[in-house]
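Saturday, quiet lab. Running sequence design on the structure tokens for the scaffold JK sent over.
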């Protein structure tokens, strides 16, 4: 009996090595940078066009990876690598404004990140010094009150539209929610200010008015986000609960909401992120002050976006110190939003329905 041995080709035959695309990208960027450096009319490093060099390098990489892949692999694989490069480039371009924004805020605001900045207010401060403790308290209290008002209203509205709403009433609610989604924030501030001016007195400002204005902006975001998440809950889960004799309200409470709690938490955080940086409605409703005020129902309250706006517009006797406070308050606001998103992730993880694989 003769044994025939065959030499099978390796699985990686006809494919580029994993390091090849990265090597081509690096080589393309190096060549592009060298060409731009040589072609620079002045030879001054400050005049070097780094954006143009990167763009030309990426375009050169796309040409090289397509040609080399079509020769070494196949035409189909070359098109796949070209599309991958285009998608990665588009993603990077989309990130550039965000990276630039974060870099600008961090570099300009980190100078005032000290103990005094987070422990003092601006009361009796004219030039240097001072802090934003009053603005932090105002932002947290006003936003929390707005969330306490908007989240139950928005969530119950979405439950009605998904589970109970039929006919003209549901269509009307959906229409008005869509209209509210697109209203300018200043309109919400004017609406709340007008209501309180008619009921109490003109010129009134307090933190609770700011919470109501932000709640008007939050409700449609919560409704639309929660509605879509409730709709994707499988009907089989509802039918299984009904088959066991569970009433509809308890099915919603024990089955539908726990199943979609992670997504609902994300939609709530998106709504909070939507309003926490609003300036115009809070200028009209909550006003601004240099002192600490933690009473939502009495007196004006300062918030971080209003503090940043006021520090930039009214720079006083020391413009550099005022601008530093404005940048630092903007950085603080970004960090608060990041912290809220992390908390939302943890809440969604804790309350999400457990599966057998967990």
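Result came back. Writing it out in full:
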């Amino acid at each position: 009996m003769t044994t025939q041995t065959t030499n099978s080709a390796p699985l990686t035959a006809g494919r580029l090595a994993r390091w090849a695309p990265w090597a081509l990208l690096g080589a393309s960027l190096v060549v592009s940078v060298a060409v731009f450096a040589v072609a620079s009319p002045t030879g001054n490093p400050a005049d070097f066009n780094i954006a143009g060099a990167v763009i030309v390098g990426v375009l050169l990489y796309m040409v090289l990876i397509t040609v080399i892949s079509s020769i070494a692999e196949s035409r189909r694989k070359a098109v796949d690598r070209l599309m991958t490069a285009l998608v990665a480039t588009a993603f990077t371009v989309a990130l550039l404004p965000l990276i630039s924004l974060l870099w600008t805020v961090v570099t300009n605001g980190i100078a005032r990140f000290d103990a005094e900045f987070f422990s003092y207010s601006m009361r009796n401060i004219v030039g240097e010094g001072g802090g934003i403790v009053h603005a932090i308290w105002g932002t947290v209290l006003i936003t929390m009150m707005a969330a306490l008002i908007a989240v139950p209203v928005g969530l119950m509205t979405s439950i009605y539209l998904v589970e109970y709403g039929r006919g003209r009433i549901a269509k009307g609610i959906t229409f008005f929610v869509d209209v509210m989604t697109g209203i300018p924030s200043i309109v919400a501030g004017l609406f709340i200010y007008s209501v309180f001016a008619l009921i109490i007195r003109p010129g009134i400002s307090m933190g609770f008015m700011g919470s109501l204005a932000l709640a008007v902006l939050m409700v449609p975001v919560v409704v639309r986000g929660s509605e879509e998440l409730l709709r994707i809950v499988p009907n089989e889960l509802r039918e299984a609960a009904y088959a066991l004799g569970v009433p509809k309200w308890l099915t919603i409470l024990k089955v539908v909401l726990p199943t979609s709690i992670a997504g609902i938490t994300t939609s709530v955080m998106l709504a909070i992120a939507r309003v926490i940086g609003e300036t115009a409605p809070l200028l009209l409703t909550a006003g601004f002050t240099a002192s600490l005020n933690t009473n939502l129902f009495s007196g004006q309250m300062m918030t971080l976006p209003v503090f940043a706006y006021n520090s930039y517009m009214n720079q006083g006797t020391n413009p550099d110190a005022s601008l530093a406070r404005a940048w630092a308050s903007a950085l603080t606001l970004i960090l608060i939003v990041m912290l809220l998103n992390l908390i939302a992730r943890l809440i969604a993880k804790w309350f999400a329905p457990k599966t057998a694989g967990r």
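Notes for JK: Residues 1-12 have pLDDT under 50 and may be disordered. The radius of gyration is 28 Å. Ask whether to fix the surface positions before the next round.
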